[in-house]
Structures are given as structure tokens and as C-alpha cells.
Automatic annotation (TrEMBL):
It is found in: Endomembrane system. GO terms for cellular component: endomembrane system; plasma membrane. The active site is at D143, D448. It is a multi-pass membrane protein. Pfam families: Cellulose_synt. PANTHER family: X-BOX TRANSCRIPTION FACTOR-RELATED. This is Cellulose synthase-like protein G3.
Length: 751
């Protein structure tokens, strides 16, 4: 509860009221889990046949993983806190002229997957921050090395001279022009708004035109400076192989807006690329920006943003200052993370793109410990945090890169420029600590998770700041294959950390204590959900089809344990979700997507990771496309699942859908036939699981059979899946033949 000499607090926090209930539930549920696991273990020892041995083993492994995941989520439940900031008190406490300078990093990587207009909107939205303007510098990293993106930013620089004063004068809060004009303002469109709207539309048309042509036509290039800039795109210039391009598009000492006010710095950076050196994807790009910005402005505070995310509140930087300027918080403060929130999600969020747990609930839980993990975008870092722990400063190789170095030269001066080019070179990092101990860390496709984690291990604390008005809004992928591929990339990246020498279980627990270690382990081991999900999606069903009972009868006490474990987990998940502002249908889709991801992204991520681990294959950063197809958008808005392409990711999913339906139907037939051994009592749990699967798979059945639009499941996928299901059934039949009409669930043990 920090107040200062003026008695005005900058921020407060209060614990969640559910903490005690959470702790009691954790203990009871934990005991129930242990009971089940010990039962499995004893059954394993007592198993009589090889088949029952393997079935029990599968459940022992699956349920152990579920138990592990349950145990790790407890860190989020032990001490969640709600924070509140008072940016309005800021001006009474600090003079604006004493605000720290702010460097904003925006990354983009491909003008065809990430439309340059998105980058423009992201940049404009932060340039319009309510912050002393000469203290703001916006750096755009273009890993696509594209003249199209540079062109778009040149246009943005010109438009900014109208847009920024317009926002300031009218107190606009939606400072991304696209978001601002998307709201229908027809009724009170003043001339001024109309003018700027026309200007924006014209700029958009020019940028679109250039992007579509794939080339910046001569008629669009006006000044000598611009000609020189585009001359760098020679014949040999390719995306993977090109020299550094740094272009200062706006300079706060020189450029003024139409009302004569200063403008923030706007700098375009496309680092050198060479086919012979690794570039470490976004992590590499951010490190180049860390160095280039150090040479040019060296602001102590850095905001990182992806080009698919824009500011929704110009007060955000001030809000972050409420923590950054608190002398009690500052010495150990590594970063202030804002949640990832999204625009354009359909009503019931069919793909669970909101990731409420990942981006809101879990960070809130970590807030009461050492602070949230880093979510990649919408995060204010202290520059110092990139150079060793709070009490263990690690100096960079040249003093000009040091976080406490004062820049006393002009951005344009040849000295600054030369050095900037030098530190953006692709082999600059050779034999340095960059990516290992300094800057954004390399070695994982989820550089965000890994970097935040390493900073926290070094002793840095973080703050999760979740104001009522969203600070940033991002875009989400709106077709299933994009969603699953994105999640697969995350899965691989997380495993890269989980199974490294920095594993949260060992290294993390030692560095940050058990609760924080487990919290990071929960995300790190995210993809192993695929093991229990896959087992429960196939095994109960295949055994049901072969008349083998594998769960306790309804009349047995163990049955109640299963009921408790299932309902307990589901109800707690539901409460977490709804209390964080979710609706029932969104929660339902969220759990459905958890199962779908388990059968696709997590499963394939796990397999690809293992292949890479054993040196068989490698994988890169597969950029999520932000380009929207109109038909797809329509179907998305109606809430229809989009399959469309014959992706291997859909195969296990389709297989599970078929197996569950067949097993569920077969189970009914068996029960009605009144077969003594296969009565409802014994098969109930299996029937329930299959039925639950069927309900979850309804959109998949629709997509296989009833749909004719471009988003249905391709014939090829359903044929392959059906064939594989058949093989699976045969294999199960051969294995289970001798156990038919038997129960594998062993009742004679501990009860
Ligand atoms: O070689 C690359 C690849 C990507 N990017 C940028 O990285 C960002 C994230 O890429 P995106 O395709 O949008 O991935 P998402 O899965 O949507 O991003 C989430 O996951 C990433 C880690 O996988 C984090 O970096 C992001 O912050 C987080 O929002 C974008 O701005 C890209 O331009 C680069 O700069 N260079
Ligand atoms: Mn993204």
C-alpha cells in the first residue's frame, strides 16, 4: 500500500476473497488425487494380464499428469491479488518533466502476413500517448526487411502530424485510427473529423495499393531522403539476406505537427540478415532494438508491442508509472505487464482465443507472489532488468549500451548512426552475452515466457496491471488451423524451456521458491496435457467397444471418487472463468478447445519437440497470419468452426470424434440388449466419457457431414481418420479379445 510524502497513494491492492476456500479445496482435492493414484499403483502391482497392466499403466501415467497439472495450478490459487492504480495522483507527486523517457518497441516480420496498416495503427496509437511527447521514441523492427513497411511508416509519420494534435485536442482515447473510425460516429461528424477521416482513408488506400503491387512506385516517392532510403532495396536485397536499414522518420527535436507542437521520435529498423547466421526470430529483433535504442535515446523504460496490438488508452504509460515511480517498488521492478485482450472475438469465442486463464487468471494469481510472467506484448520493462539481476549488474561490452549511459548526441549525428548500424549487424552478438545473460533470452520459441522467467529467476519482480479499461487490444487468428498452429508453436517453445537446464521444476524452484517455480512449471509443461486428453479420448471408448469395463461400477465407493474428481476440477475451472468475467458459453468453448488443443497442438507440439530433441528435425517461428478472408470472417462471426484445409492437425481430432460417437452408440445397444456383464452399472463411466466427447464434438460432426461451405472438414481428412479409427479398433480388438466381458478396474485393493 504505497503512499508517499504527499499521502496520496499511487497504487493499492487487496487479496481475493476466495483465497481461504481455494486453500481448503486444494488440500481435499489433493488427498482425493493421491487416493486415486495409489489405487492405480496397487492395481498395477496386482494386475494379472498384460492387457490390464497396460491399461492401468496408461491411467496411472495420465492421472499422474492430471495430478501434476492440478498441483502446479495451486500456485495461482494461493494468493491472487487485485491491484488498483491512481494515475490521477501522479501529477501531485512527480513533475511531468521528471517522468522517465519511454522507448516503444514494435515488431513486425512479414508485410504479407502482417499488413503494414496494422503496424501503422500500432505506431500511431502509442505516439498519441498522454505523455511528455519529447520523451517518447517509437522504434519499429521490421524482420521482413520490406520497403512496403517502410513506406507505410513514412506515410504514418506524415499523417501523425495531423492525427496527434487531433487526438490531443479532442481527448481521443481510441488513438488507433482504425479503431477510432470503426465506431460509427455519423450522427455528430464534425468537419474536422470528416477531414481527418478522408486523410486517413487516402493514406490507407496508398499503403494498400503499394502492398498489393508489392513495390513502392516512383510516383509515391517524393523527397530526396525518401529516394535514398528506398535505394537500399537493390536487386540483391532479400528478406533473409540484406544490410541493415535504419531510417529516422520523425525526430522530436526537429519535426513539428501542424499546430507547431513537437512530435515523438519514430525510427524504422530492419536489422542485417544473412543466411549464414542465426537471427533468433523475435528475440533477436528485440535485442537489436535494445541496442539501437540505447545508442539513440536510451530511455530507462521500454514498452514492447507486437504489430497486431494497439493502445486503447493513452493513460497507460502513466498507469505503469504508478509502479515504476514508487521508490519501494522500483529497485526490484523488472516489468509491468498488461493483459493480452482482444478485439473481434466472436460472441462465444469458439476458438477460446481469449485464453482467459493464460492471459488474465494465472497472471493475477502470480501477482500475489513475485509477479506475473511476461506475455510478449503490452509490457513496460525497466531497461536495467536486461542487464543482470537487481544487485548483480552485468555491463554490456561497450559503455554506450549501458542502461545508465546518458545520450548527449543528436540521433542524426554520424557518430550515433554509425554505431547504430554497427550494433544492428548480424554478427555483432558473436562472443557476447546477448541472448544468454543479457537482453531477451534465446533458446525458446516463446521468448516472452522464457525471458520473463529468467528475469524473475535473477530476482526481478513484476506487476500485473489489469485496469478496467483495456490498455491494449490485439487481433486474434480467426480460423482453426491458424489457432492450432500458433498453439503448437507455443507448445514447442514451452517444452524447450521445461526440458532445458533452466527447467522451472529444478532451476526455477531453487531460484524463486516452490510456488513461483510451480507456477512457471504449469505453463512450461502445458503440452503434456495431450497425454491424459488423448488417453481419455480413445481408451475408454475402445474398451467400451470391446465390452471391457475399466472404471468402477456406479455402486462402488471408488465411483464417488471419480465423480468428485471430475466435478471438482470442472466446477473450480468454471468458477475461475466466470468470476473473471466470462460467460457460460465462453467457458464451455474454452474447455472444448482445451480438449481440441490436447489432440492437436499439444500432441503435435510434443512430438515435434521430441523429434527435435533427438536431432531429427528443426522448427522455426511460424508467423500467425493477420490477413482475413471475407468468407472466413463471416463464418467466424456466425460462430461456425473453420476447418477447410486438410491439415494433419485435424486427423486425431476427427478420429476422436468418430470413436466417441461409435462407442457411445454401441454402449447403448449393449445396455439395451441387457447383456449381464455389460450392464449400465459397469459401463456408466465409459459411456459418460464417450457421451461427453460426443457433446464436445458436435461442431466436428457438422463439419464432416452437414456442411458444404469452404470451412468443412475436407473429405481427405475424414477418410484418413475413418481408416485410422478402423485400424485402431482392430488393434484394440486383437489385444482385448481375451479380456472381453471382464473388468480391469481392480476392486480388491486398498478399500
Ligand atoms: O522472426 C520473427 C518472428 C516474429 N516476429 C514478431 O513477433 C510477434 C509475434 O508473432 P505472432 O505471429 O503474432 O505470434 P503470436 O503467437 O500471436 O504471439 C504470441 O507469442 C509469441 C511467442 O511465440 C510472443 O512473442 C508474442 O508476444 C505473443 O503475443 C509479431 O509482432 C512478429 O512480427 C519477429 O519480429 N520476428
Ligand atoms: Mn500475435
Amino acid at each position: 500500500m504505497s503512499s508517499n510524502s504527499h499521502g496520496l497513494p499511487l497504487h493499492t491492492h487487496k487479496p481475493s476473497r476466495r483465497t481461504t476456500a481455494n486453500r481448503i479445496f486444494a488440500v481435499v482435492y489433493g488427498c482425493a488425487t493421491l487416493a486415486l493414484l495409489s489405487h492405480h499403483a496397487l492395481s498395477l502391482l496386482n494386475s494379472t494380464t498384460l492387457t490390464s497392466f497396460f491399461i492401468t499403466l496408461t491411467f496411472l501415467i495420465s492421472d499422474s499428469i492430471l495430478a501434476f497439472m492440478f498441483a502446479t495450478t495451486q500456485s495461482f490459487h494461493m494468493r491472487p491479488i487485485y491491484r488498483k492504480e491512481f494515475p490521477e495522483n501522479l501529477r501531485r507527486v512527480v513533475k511531468e518533466s521528471d517522468f522517465p523517457a519511454l522507448d516503444v518497441f514494435i515488431s513486425t516480420a512479414d508485410p504479407h502476413k502482417e499488413p503494414p496498416m496494422n503496424v501503422v495503427n500500432t505506431a500511431l496509437s502509442v505516439m498519441a500517448y498522454d505523455y511528455p511527447i519529447q520523451k517518447v521514441s517509437v522504434y519499429v523492427s521490421d524482420d521482413g526487411g520490406s520497403a512496403l513497411t517502410l513506406f507505410a511508416l513514412m506515410e504514418a509519420a506524415k499523417f501523425a502530424s495531423h492525427w496527434l494534435p487531433f487526438c490531443r485536442k479532442n481527448n481521443i482515447v481510441e488513438c488507433s485510427p482504425e479503431a477510432y473510425f470503426a465506431i460509427d460516429r455519423d450522427s455528430h461528424l464534425s468537419d474536422q473529423v470528416e477531414n481527418i477521416k478522408v486523410m486517413y482513408k487516402r493514406m490507407k488506400a496508398r499503403v494498400k495499393n503499394v502492398t498489393e503491387r508489392g513495390k513502392v512506385a516512383h510516383e509515391y516517392i517524393t523527397g530526396e531522403e525518401e529516394i535514398q532510403a528506398f535505394n537500399k532495396w537493390t536487386e540483391e536485397f532479400t528478406r533473409q539476406d540484406h544490410p541493415t536499414v535504419i531510417q529516422v522518420l520523425l525526430e522530436s527535436n526537429k519535426d513539428k505537427d501542424i499546430t507547431g507542437n513537437l512530435m515523438p521520435n519514430l525510427i524504422y529498423v530492419s536489422r542485417e540478415k544473412s543466411k549464414t547466421s542465426t537471427h533468433h526470430f523475435k528475440a533477436g529483433a528485440l535485442n537489436v532494438l535494445l541496442r539501437v535504442s540505447a545508442i539513440m535515446t536510451n530511455a530507462p523504460i521500454i514498452l514492447t508491442l507486437d504489430c497486431d496490438m494497439h493502445s486503447n488508452d493513452p493513460q497507460t504509460a502513466r498507469r505503469a508509472l504508478c509502479y515504476i515511480l514508487d521508490p519501494e517498488v522500483r529497485p526490484k521492478l523488472g516489468y509491468v505487464q498488461f493483459p493480452q485482450l482482444f478485439r473481434g472475438i466472436n460472441k462465444n469465442d469458439i476458438y477460446a482465443c481469449e485464453h482467459k486463464r493464460l492471459f488474465q487468471i494465472d497472471p493475477m494469481g502470480m501477482n500475489g507472489l513475485s509477479g506475473s510472467n511476461h506475455l510478449g506484448t503490452g509490457c513496460f520493462f525497466t531497461r536495467r532488468a536486461f542487464f543482470g539481476g537487481p544487485s548483480n549488474f552485468l555491463p554490456p561490452e561497450i559503455p554506450q549500451l549501458s542502461p545508465n549511459n546518458l545520450v548527449d548526441k543528436h540521433i542524426w549525428s554520424s557518430e550515433v548512426m554509425e554505431l547504430a548500424y554497427c550494433v544492428a549487424a548480424c554478427n555483432y552478438e558473436n562472443n557476447t552475452n546477448w541472448g544468454l545473460k543479457i537482453g531477451v533470452r534465446y533458446g525458446s520459441l516463446v521468448e516472452d515466457y522464457f525471458t520473463g522467467y529468467r528475469l524473475q529467476c535473477e530476482g526481478w519482480k513484476s506487476i500485473f496491471c489489469h485496469p478496467d479499461r483495456a490498455a491494449f487490444y490485439g487481433d486474434i487468428p480467426i480460423n482453426l488451423v491458424e489457432v492450432l498452429n500458433q498453439n503448437k508453436r507455443w507448445a514447442i517453445g514451452l517444452l524447450e524451456v521445461a526440458f532445458s537446464k533452466f527447467s522451472p521444476i529444478t532451476f526455477g524452484t531453487r531460484a524463486m521458491g516452490p510456488l513461483m517455480g510451480l507456477a512457471y512449471a504449469h505453463s512450461g509443461f502445458w503440452p503434456i496435457w495431450s497425454v491424459p486428453i488423448t488417453s481419455y479420448a480413445f481408451l475408454p471408448q475402445l474398451t467400451l467397444l470391446n465390452g471391457v469395463t475399466i472404471f468402477p461400477k456406479v455402486s462402488e465407493p471408488w465411483f464417488l471418487l471419480y465423480v468428485y474428481l471430475f466435478l471438482g476440477a470442472y466446477i473450480q475451472d468454471f468458477l475461475d472463468f466466470v468470476l473473471a468475467g466470462g460467460t457460460f458459453y465462453r467457458w464451455w468453448n474454452d474447455q472444448r478447445m482445451w480438449i481440441i488443443r490436447g489432440l492437436s497442438s499439444y500432441l503435435f507440439g510434443l512430438i515435434e519437440f521430441l523429434l527435435k530433441y533427438s536431432g531429427i528435425s528443426t522448427h522455426g517461428f511460424n508467423l500467425t497470419s493477420k490477413v482475413l478472408d471475407e468468407d472466413q470472417r463471416k463464418r467466424y462471426e456466425q460462430g461456425t468452426m473453420e476447418f477447410g484445409v486438410p491439415s494433419p492437425l485435424f486427423v486425431p481430432l476427427t478420429m476422436a470424434a468418430i470413436v466417441n460417437l461409435v462407442a457411445f452408440a454401441w454402449g447403448h445397444i449393449e445396455v439395451f440388449r441387457g447383456n449381464n456383464n455389460n450392464n449400465l452399472e459397469g459401463l456408466f463411466v465409459q459411456m459418460f466419457i464417450a457421451g461427453f466427447g460426443v457433446v464436445n464434438c458436435i461442431p466436428i460432426y457438422e463439419a464432416i457431414i452437414f456442411r458444404s461451405d469452404g470451412g468443412k472438414i475436407p473429405r481427405k481428412t475424414s477418410v484418413v481418420a475413418t481408416f485410422l479409427v478402423f485400424l485402431l479398433y482392430l488393434a484394440a480388438h486383437v489385444t482385448l479379445r481375451n479380456s472381453a466381458a471382464k473388468s480391469v478396474f481392480c476392486q480388491s485393493t486398498i478399500l
